[in-house]
Design brief:
The complex is a heterodimer. Chain A has strands at residues 5-7, 10-13, 19-24, 31-38, 42-50, 53-56, 65-71, 74-79, 88-95, 103-104, 108-112. By secondary structure, chain A is an all-beta fold. The radius of gyration of chain A is 13 Å and the shape is globular. Chain B is mostly beta strands. The chains are: A mainly beta, B mainly beta.
């Protein structure tokens, strides 16, 4: 199994630009999670999906952030417009059931200048 | 709201010394998971504990779940430089369908 796949691995963009992060979960996993990690705030859960349906988006910082899961094998996290404070590593993770062990992707390191 | 606290936040040890990180929840947990994140890497699942008082071992790592299922610990015997990283606990409480994550304990090992 290829594991959770994320793209791009690195993204550098200017403030105000739209950023789209992509994730392909492990086949057969029903739950997908988006996390953000910074030195200041640690690992934060942004949103999670169960069977492609958003269940809890209470961690999404503001309306500039949106996430979709159009099918079981693909999810996106979009930031529009991006700001320097959005700079972080964004992880996608998947699990068979929401409270089972989670498998993380390699992350996308986002830098907004 | 439900919280999971981890202590210490950072720990420096000499290679060969033991290391312990503690995880405390404000509510009773139905299970707790431990993850390790190497520097520059992503969190990797280590183990899950479910039963009250449960103890599990993985080589030099010993994981415990408290009798009241509100706390847990990870103990590493005779640390090695390969143990360097951040150790996270994450627990499920009640009917909450998601894991509540601790902030992690970062371990540095001096050779």
């Amino acid at each position: 199994d290829a594991g959770v796949i994320q793209s791009p691995r690195h993204e550098v963009t200017e403030m105000g630009q739209e950023v789209t992060l992509r994730c392909k979960p492990i086949s057969g996993h029903n739950s997908l999670f988006w996390y953000r990690q910074t030195m200041m705030r640690g690992l934060e859960l942004l949103i999670y999906f169960n069977n492609n349906v958003p269940i809890d988006d209470s961690g999404m910082p503001e309306d500039r952030f949106s996430a979709k899961m159009p099918n079981a094998s693909f999810s996106t996290l979009k930031i529009q417009p991006s700001e320097p404070r959005d700079s972080a590593v964004y992880f996608c993770a998947s699990s068979f059931v929401a409270v089972y062990e989670q498998y993380f992707g390699p992350g996308t390191r986002l830098t907004v200048t | 709201g439900q919280q999971v606290m981890q202590i210490p936040q950072y720990q420096h040890v000499q290679e060969g010394e033991d290391f312990t990180t503690y995880c405390n929840s404000s509510t009773t947990l139905s299970n707790i998971q431990w993850y390790k994140q190497r520097p520059g890497g992503h969190p990797v699942f280590l183990i899950q504990l479910v039963k009250s008082g449960e103890v599990k071992k993985q080589k030099r790592l010993t994981f415990q779940f408290g009798e009241a299922k509100k706390n847990s610990s990870l103990h590493i015997t005779a640390t090695q430089t390969t143990d360097v990283g951040t150790y996270f606990c994450a627990g499920k409480a009640g009917n909450n369908r998601k894991l509540i994550w601790g902030l992690g304990t970062s371990l540095a090992v001096n050779p």
